[in-house]
Amino acid sequence: MEGGRWYEYKWKLVGRNDIAGCCHLLDDVINASFVPGESCCTRPAGDIVFEVRELAGAKDLAIRTMPCRVERIEKIADEVAILYLKLPTGERLQFLAGQYIDILLKEGKRRSFSLANAPHDDQFLQLHVRRTPGGAFSKWVFDEMKERTIMRFEGPLGTFFLREDSDKPMLFVAGGTGFAPIKAQIEHAFHHGVDRQMVLYWGVRSLKDLYLAGLPARWREQHPNFSFVPVLSEPLAGDGWQGRTGFVHQAVLEDFDSLAGYQVYACGAPAMTDIARKTFVEEKGLPEDEFYCDAFTPSVDPKR
């Protein structure tokens, strides 16, 4: 380009939804001491504006602090409960399918939970809560919380939402309760008549951990563009399981020769999302900017 050369470097914003990408700078607007490969040492000589594509879809949604009432607690499995939260009369939360909220607790503590309901289905906000050893909030939910309990939350938060401006087929990879935001995304797509091909891989330990297995099974019957592949990593002898076993990302690697033309939405433990990102990009040609993820990190309160 006349008047200067373009240099590229990688950047990353670190948080619950890690965002990675690259930036291009013209050498006319960076310090003359710039050395390619050492961009962390450069200083701008003028104003620089960054546009993060992953944040653009959520920029017009107000982040609010709101009260809510626990309308119902459904203990759908030994280790998973679904909370149905009711907002005050006349109030609505505008959010994108796949985003999360922070439950505000005493002493400034927060607990992040994905919204498991799609935006059009907002009579209640739905949270999937897994019992976590050492987790004070999950212990409260399972052992002490009563219906009509009042809580406060902040949201919507996060960049894990559907990119609806694409026509690429979508691959959803869920681990455990990582199914929650993916459920919202898939139901949102169905509601809006999205005809893109969708494949859901849901990985859990044993059959009892597929706490809503009947739901994606019904989706598969009702929507010809949807497929469902459950994967058990440690099936029990009594499960009588004859389906896929092993790690959920490995099942994807076995089933696809190439992911070059796909979008991937992954949610679960960081170990799963990290290895999925790495192998899908390096081994199957997935464009790095077409991998969207939300990594769950359990919050455990230290013993006093």
Give keywords.
3 domains, six-stranded antiparallel beta sheet, six-stranded parallel beta sheet, 304 residues, globular, Rossmann fold, alpha/beta, 19% helix, Elongation Factor Tu (Ef-tu), domain 3
What's the short version?
The chain is 19% helix and 31% strand.
Please tell me the total number of domains.
Answer: 3
**CATH architecture classification of the largest domain:** 3-Layer(aba) Sandwich
Which shape, going by the Cα principal axes?
Answer: globular
Separate helix tally? 6
The fraction of residues assigned to DSSP E strands is: 25-35%
The CATH class name of the largest domain reads Alpha Beta
Considering the protein shown, what is the CATH homologous superfamily of the largest domain? Nucleotide-binding domain of ferredoxin-NADP reductase (FNR) module
Distance from N terminus to C terminus (CA atoms, Å) equals: 61 Å
The CATH topology annotation of the largest domain reads as Rossmann fold
Whole-angstrom Rg: 21 Å
Parts with pLDDT < 50 across at least 5 consecutive residues: 1-15, 19-30, 32-40
Summarize the main sheet.
6 strands, antiparallel
Overall strand count:
14
Mean pLDDT over the residues:
87
How does this model look, in words?
The chain is of the alpha/beta class. The chain has three domains: 45 residues, no CATH class; 94 residues, Translation factors (Elongation Factor Tu (Ef-tu), domain 3, Beta Barrel); 126 residues, Nucleotide-binding domain of ferredoxin-NADP reductase (FNR) module (Rossmann fold), CATH 3.40.50.80. Helices cover 19% and strands 31% of the residues. The chain contains six helices and 14 strands. The chain has a six-stranded antiparallel beta sheet, covered by helices on one side. Strands 12-11-10-9-13-14 form a six-stranded parallel beta sheet, sandwiched between helices. Strands 1-2 form a two-stranded antiparallel ribbon. Strand 5 and strand 6 form a beta hairpin. The chain is globular, with a radius of gyration of 21 Å. The protein starts with 5 loop residues before the first strand and ends in a 9-residue tail after the last strand. The N terminus is likely disordered.
